[in-house]
Fold:
Amino acid sequence: MTGGTRPADGAAGADGAAGADAAEPVTILVADDHPLYRRGLAELLAGRPGWSVVAQAEDGLAAVTESHAHDPDVVVMDLNMPKVDGIEATRRIVAASPRVGVLVLTMYDDDDSVFAAMRAGARGYVLKGADQADIVRAVETVSRGEAIFGPSVATRIVEFFAAPRRAVDPTVFPGLSQREHDVLDLIAAGRKNADIAASLSLSEKTVRNHVTNIFAKLQVADRAEAIVRAREAGLGR
Structure:
């Protein structure tokens, strides 16, 4: 991760007041499909000395267009937006201008969303429940080229990389992602969705989505058939 990585709240080690002492002006694009939240956030950030909200976007496609037009220092990006979601919008923005720092500000804290945002090029990931001061601090950190993650998200990242991971033979079900392999391995071991969710630090909804994708990719009709296929391939042991 570029720069330093630290939690977004003061209790987790942030240092000093954000924004007020910044030597360089910071230009910001706010992308969120909820008008009241978007405008309130824009007003909050525009109120910081030397900061300017150069544009607002109500969907992912507009976020990409406005970013190309204004080349802001920071894009504050929601994930669940119409036309183009925040992950794809982040990918397009960073591909066009790597200097732009994308800070994801969302309600979603599941592993899939966090790591998809990181792979797309986001420098930060903070939940909408964060305090205003934490959001401001996150914007400042990203504007400096550093990475920042909210406390619960940082914990998920640490747990994900600390968890022992069984090597997967890439020739076994090559159409599955690593996460889908993990889920299938636990399915083959007879684990239920709730147990799989707890083991992999995922929501049950995310696990159900993975299961649906696995069934489609393996072209199986149900869980029993998936278990047979997986065990024949050596999973679930």
In short: The chain has ten helices and seven strands. The chain has two domains: 5-159, 178-232. Confidence is low (pLDDT under 50) at residues 1-22. The beta strands are 5-7, 26-31, 51-57, 74-77, 101-106, 124-127, 147-149.
